[in-house]
Design a protein that fits this description.
The chain is mostly helical. It contains 14 helices and two strands, in the order H-H-H-H-H-H-H-H-E-E-H-H-H-H-H-H. It binds zinc ion (ZN). Zinc ion (ZN) binds next to helix 3.
Length: 341
């Protein structure tokens, strides 16, 4: 049922534009995360050489919260100074609460998350952080030595515009400008394996009509399958990156960002109320999405009744606790299967 409902939504050009841009960001992420993983491990090794290893001592009790972090031990104080010395925005907002300082000496990704926007706390690997988080890392960490960081910032700006478009629509003019900015960004990263090729596929996505009959997919037990003879290049993309997965991830990110903003602020502005109302109406009007986002609707309902505290925060925390537990189970299962075979 999900696919026909999605196809119906895709009859709206502006909604289709919104999703195409989201798909390009996913494609960018698919090539960037491996590269950033390797680079961050090297950067972490480099930083570690400046700080004496903590040896066999137990992990310290230092914890960061939100934009605040006051080191409680000399190791964390040295790491903080070192991280800041490589931060391009050291006088601006830094979300120390993204990371666990006691893990800085041993876990490279805990260091990386200091260069990212809020909402990264539960992520342990680059693959879990979305495209904008990785782009922020590239923009904020001078280890990456990017010649023209404005190209990175332009795509971050585009992504924020996508996430703030509560009716989930962007114009064709916007999409065209986005395509050019994406092309410029990729030209800064031609050394990233596979990215140039991925950029060509992105241009195909942006230029294709995405007509229902051209999608080259049909619904078989909810699994899209490529049909023969039509839009083979598009079909290749879709079998790897499914449109409805992209759609769900985009909506999920939109709700998560709105939630983080509201929880951090501790109150609801008029603008928040409008956003909540629009997202809630959109989900309610689409049955397939209403089922998938049942918990989020509960949270949005709670907000729209201006019943923010304490229920809203509790629901939000529980939702992410469950998500984290699910991720742990997947990793555990993968480990067990790996051990058996
Ligand atoms: Zn410490």
């Amino acid at each position: 049922m999900a696919l026909p409902a999605l196809l119906a939504r895709l009859t709206c050009r502006e909604y289709k534009n919104w999703m195409k841009a989201g798909m390009c960001l996913e494609m960018l992420h698919s090539r960037l995360h491996g590269y950033i993983d390797r680079e961050m491990q090297m950067f972490h090794r480099l930083l570690s050489q400046h700080i004496p290893a903590p040896g066999q001592r137990r992990r310290c009790q230092c914890r960061a919260r939100g934009k605040q972090f006051e080191p409680g031990c000399s190791v964390c104080a040295q790491w903080k100074e070192l991280i800041l010395s490589h931060h391009n925005n050291r006088n601006g907002e830094i979300y120390w609460g993204n990371s666990d300082p006691s893990m800085w000496p041993t876990h490279y990704w805990e260091v990386a998350k200091v260069y990212m926007p809020r909402g990264q706390t539960q992520y342990r690997r680059p693959k879990q952080s979305d495209a904008t988080a990785l782009l922020n890392l590239l923009n904020n960490c001078n280890y990456f030595n990017i010649q023209n960081t404005s190209r990175v910032r332009e795509i971050i700006k585009c992504r924020n515009e996508l996430m703030h478009s509560c009716n989930m629509k962007v114009s064709s003019t916007w999409l065209e400008a986005f395509g050019k900015k994406m092309h410029d960004l990729i030209s800064e990263f031609t050394h990233v394996p596979g990215l140039v090729k991925e950029g060509e596929k992105m241009q195909e996505v942006l230029l294709s009509d995405w007509k229902v009959e051209d999608l080259g997919i049909c619904d078989v037990d909810g699994i899209p399958k490529a049909q023969s003879g039509i839009e083979l290049q598009s079909a290749t993309i879709y079998t790897r990156l499914l449109p409805y997965d992209v759609e769900r991830r985009m909506i999920e990110q939109m709700i998560q960002e709105l939630s983080l903003e509201i929880v951090e602020r501790g109150s609801l502005t008029k603008e928040d109320e409008d956003k909540v109302c629009k997202i809630r109406n959109f989900l309610s009007q689409n049955e397939d999405l209403r089922i998938v986002f049942q918990e989020d609707l509960q949270w949005l309902d709670c907000l729209s009744k201006n019943n923010f505290a304490p229920n809203a925060e509790r629901i939000f925390t529980e939702k992410f606790a469950r998500y984290f537990l699910f991720c742990l189970m997947v990793i555990l299962a993968a480990f067990i299967v790996g051990e058996i075979y």
